[in-house]
Amino acid sequence: MDCTESMGAYIAAAKNSINILTKTLTALFKIPPRLAFIGYRDVSDGANKLIRMNFTTDVGTFQKVLGNIAAFGGGDECEDVFGGIQAVAALQW
């Protein structure tokens, strides 16, 4: 997910949708889903350019991490989309 400052409203909407989806899946299938999160920002955002959360079945922990995601950083440089893709590929599938 693009977590740069200009994406604030979209991040809020995505968080809400992800929380609803997580609750719905858990209720429908009676088993916790495996959830992971990767967020990316501009390359110039340094250590804050990637947010990684490996797969978990702990819905509460996932929702807590998701709730703490904040839109900041960014600028005129390109977002590190490729870094985000690399982070997804590095998850423990």
Q: Can you describe what's shown?
A:
This protein is α+β, with helices and mostly antiparallel strands and 93 residues long. The protein has helices spanning 8-29, 59-67, 81-89; strands spanning 35-40, 50-56. It has three helices and two strands. It has a two-stranded antiparallel ribbon. It is globular and about 45 Å long. The two termini are 18 Å apart. The mean pLDDT is 92.
Task: Record keyword descriptors for this entry.
two-stranded antiparallel ribbon, 3 helices, alpha+beta, Thr-specific_kinase-like, single chain, globular, 93 residues, vWFA_dom_sf, VWFA domain-containing protein
Tally of DSSP β-strands: 2
Q: What's the structural domain tally? A: 1
- What letter string, H or E per element, gives the SSE order? HEEHH
Helix content: 40-55%
Main sheet summary: 2 strands, antiparallel
Q: What's the tally of helices?
A: 3
Please give the order of strands in the largest beta sheet: 1-2
Span between termini: 18 Å
The pLDDT mean sits at 92
Low-confidence stretches: none
Structural class: alpha+beta
- The fraction of residues in strands falls at 5-15%
Gyration radius, rounded: 14 Å
Question: How would you sum up the global shape?
Answer: globular
